[in-house]
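Hello again,

I reread your note about wanting to compare the complex against the isolated chains. To keep things tidy I'm splitting this into two emails, and this first one only covers the full assembly. Below are the input lines as submitted, including protein chains and any nucleic acid or small-molecule components. They are followed by the predicted structure of everything together. The single-chain runs will come separately.
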Amino acid sequence: MISDIIVVSSLALTSMTPILLGSVGEIFTEKSGVVNIGIEGIFLLSALISLIITFVTEDPYLGLFTGFLIGAFAGFIHAVFAVYLKSDQIIVGVGFNMLAYGATVLMMVSIWQAHGASPTLPTKTYVISIPLGRDVITIHPLSIMAIGLAILFWWILEKTSLGLKIRACGEDPKSAEASGVNVYLMRIIATTVGGGLAGLGGAFLTVSWIGQFTRNISAGRGFIALANVAFSNWNPLTAILGALIFGIFDVLALYVPIKLSSLYGIVFTTQNNLFLTIPYLATIIIVMIISRRIKMPRSLGTPYIKE
Amino acid sequence: MRKIFLEEAGSLYQRRALRYLLIFLEPMTAFAIATLINAFILYLLRYDPLEVYSVMFLTGYSDIHYLFIKSSPYIATGLAFSTPFLAGIFNIGGEGQLYVGALTALLASYVSRNFLISILTGSIAGALLSGLIAFLRVYRNVNEVVTAIMLNWIMYYITSYIITVYIYDPFAPYQSRPVPREAVINPDLMFIISVFTALIIYIVLFYTSIGYMMRVVGRSFRSAVYSGINIKRIMILSMMIGGGSAGLGGALIPLGTSPHVLDNTMSALYGVGFMGIGIGLLGRNNPIGIIIASIFISGLIIGGQNVERIIGAPPEVVDVIIGITIVMLAIPYILRNILAKRGVYI
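Full-complex prediction:
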């Protein structure tokens, strides 16, 4: 029992990482007043492109960095649409997700002639392995780094003047502009950096964790990250806890059937699909429970028009 | 910013004509930009864009009869997005509503052996699922985008589970037993049912008080509050009409298209719900526009399947094009802004 808890929580530390990076990026973005629901698409694109870079250069860390750049680029494009072209930000996000899904399948087929999954990476990023009884616990340094980044972005948002400016743009852009803050610039910076964090999370999926790209690899994690933003009430520190909870349910989807079959000797084949609904059901229930008390940035999702 | 200049842009009729022209020009401009960007992506991936497009556009629209049949479920999912959108609520759960509609219609067809009962069951199931999304949004303030995507995944796995565990075909365990012969419908009837649904929704939206209230809620929340409209009920109702439409689209697929089964990866259904978003936006959220947009996009999808067969590029090329089109359509009034800079206000 105790070993189960340790194993599940160590696995959750891995599965929470993309969710945490995505949520912290989205919190940073949304605090400036821009909503980017294209995290799912950023996950997909950076997961695939960072994998390609790792295959070519055989350097997974360069892959991670490329993932960050891809996410930042996507965030920047989203910011241009949201800030300068005054687009409907939800629709841009939906379109981007569809584009990213199509483009990743297109790339996968044209590069590897593979329709379902890419080849597996020979060298992933470094993992810390701790032997514990019969099990070996693996911890990715990036998981620890993601928690550090969450704390760093909390500090930026709450304790620095840049954070104050960004928050002002999300609450009341008119007053922010009147007090000399460049609303457009702040929103572009926040959305770009936020996209970059999500991109890092996407790269983590392939380069550190799974080692290969499969069609729709993010499997709704981008939206779970969005749910976590609401869960955290736009606080990066609470987002750590939220990501851990969502990460645990992500692990349970695979862990429960394996554990049940080892305990009772039942072999799950087609019934596995039922367990796979666990993270999504849990997300709806968690968001439902906490949704009453949330307080989002007041100007979220509305374009700012200079007078 | 947006002023109305009566004199500058000619007579009332000229301006009205220009406005109708823009209804077509704006989506077509967005689509043209999307095909250009996609051509660049194809070029980078070492496909010949001209070859891909010539196969896509020449073969996609060659069989008009098949084109119309193919477009039927897309009309339904387009309506599933646009009806709630007009009332200011965002339904990207069309995919899950489509799955649940297809599954319940299939189950109902085993029991009832009647296509009408099956279709109704599918619609009701879709409406209930979307009603849940709207209920959570309206009464518990849960973001409808998150709930909808989560429900899409849940329905995907549950449908797959039910197909492979309870209703599998003993000779092909990865798929369901086929629809009983008595409940199978003629493919032509699929198109007629979809168009009929679109027309009914058109009448409801533009010629009834409920439709008027929906559009007021979507246009101006504040006006709706002041005029005493029950916003919560209207939002849930619009969402349920949308979900019912998606459920209907799902029901039509196993009932009307051969081999009248569902398989464990939902290959006949996958993506039809998501494509509804693009269709709704391309059709300018107007049921008549949605019929036209569905036929247009169905041609692309048929063409995309031929591209895979002939050139080897995956049919997801269509997703790239439509994805970029959606992004472009999110820019409000592209052409209107350009015209406004030249001094033409409409």
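For quick reference: Chain A touches chain B through 51 residues (CB under 8 Å).

B.
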